[in-house]
Amino acid sequence: MATMADVARRAGVSIATVSHVLNRTRPVLPVTRQAVLDAIDELGYTPNTLARSLVTSRTRSIGLAVSAISNPYFTEILQGVEAGALEHGYGLLIADPHDDPGHERKAVRLLHERRVDGMIIAPSAAPDALLRYLGQHDVPTVFLDRLVDAAAGSGFHYDQVCSENTAPMASLVTHLAERGHRRIGLVAGLPGLSTTAERITGYRHGLARAGLPYDERLVAHGDSRTEAAEEATHRLLSLGAPPGALVTADNAMTVGALRALRDRGLSVPGDLALCCFDDFSWADLFTPRLTVIAQPSKEIGATAVRLLLERLASPHLERRTVRLPSAFVHRTSCGCPEGVSHTGSPGTGIPRKGPES
């Protein structure tokens, strides 16, 4: 089995230089770095990660705790995290906390026991136990997608990254209002999540901008799950004066809402206009195609890795919260005909339908 000394001899450099190339601990001239990499490839050298971790107290691994990994949104975040980790020579250990605070703490503890250098976590709606554990063990951590209130724990020093939520949700509501809708329902996410709170705020802002009153009966929580969203949609449609338009607050709940509409024999947008928060790969394959807010999910994952590695390199950096812009993707489920573009100000240049009775 080839050793680091063998690689150094083949590349014509010192063992220290090989170490710097492998560990990225000091800049190395590109031609020298390539000579080392070529020698590694020719000799089939495999670094002894365990031995190196004993010397450096680093395992070059990142723990990722994200619920509902099967959700396309989180799958794309995972791809962004994995690509960012691989680019910097880090491995990835993954756990699913199932959006359960008790399970969340166990999952994070197991990752920590495997000596990951730091963690990237999409926290649950009740992260108090998680924050206590991370604080007790001083675990470098980045929260993604769902923000944690800095007041939730003393000495809060975690970095965070998410997309914009409030203004994009308001733009969906405003767009539907400009189409003539006066009763706009919302299938909201799990109470306690920052994404849920911010999207409800955006919904209310959109109503206010359109001069429409807020009616709490038009908001039903789908708890960020398909089945619960299906039930929530049925509740909204069973009102004495049901909504004529609906906004769903994530892609899993969009599926639930569509199931409820199908069960009732209702068409989109003929019987009910629909706009959704979250894009997904088959959103434009539906008939009609879904008008959505698209989040930069892969960029969120890659940014989380960057923030974590910067934190590992400089533990005393000021705490940072990064928000990335979301995009309005205009299709036809909102009731607009094919070929009509969204120009940035919701409803601009878009023909209205008659007001609802």
| Count of distinct strands | 12
Major sheet description? 6 strands, parallel
| CA(first)-CA(last) distance | 79 Å
Number of helices: 12
List low-confidence stretches: 343-357
Mean pLDDT: 88
Structural class: alpha/beta
Can you tell me the overall shape?
elongated
Strand content: 5-15%
Gyration radius from CA atoms, angstroms: 24 Å
| Strand arrangement in the largest pleated sheet | 2-1-3-4-5-11
Order of helices and strands: HHHHEHEHEHEEHEHEHEHEEHEE
What secondary-structure arrangement, pairings included, does this model have?
Blueprint: H1 4-11, H2 15-23, H3 30-43, H4 49-56, E1 61-65, H5 72-87, E2 91-95, H6 101-113, E3 118-121, H7 128-137, E4 141-144, E5 159-163, H8 166-178, E6 184-188, H9 194-209, E7 219-221, H10 226-237, E8 245-248, H11 251-263, E9 273-277, E10 291-294, H12 297-313, E11 321-324, E12 327-329
Parallel strand pairs: 1-2, 1-3, 3-4, 4-5, 5-11, 6-7, 6-8, 8-9, 9-10
Antiparallel strand pairs: 10-12
Describe the structure.
With 357 residues, this protein is of the alpha/beta class. 42% of the residues lie in helices and 14% in strands. The chain contains 12 helices and 12 strands. The strands form 2 sheets. It has a 6-stranded parallel β-sheet. It has a 6-stranded mixed β-sheet with strand order 7-6-8-9-10-12, with helices on both faces. Helix 5 (72-87) links the parallel strand 1 (61-65) and strand 2. The longest helix has 17 residues, at 297-313. The protein is elongated and about 80 Å long. It starts with a helix and ends in a 28-residue tail after the last strand. 45% of the residues are buried. The model is unreliable at 343-357 (pLDDT under 50).
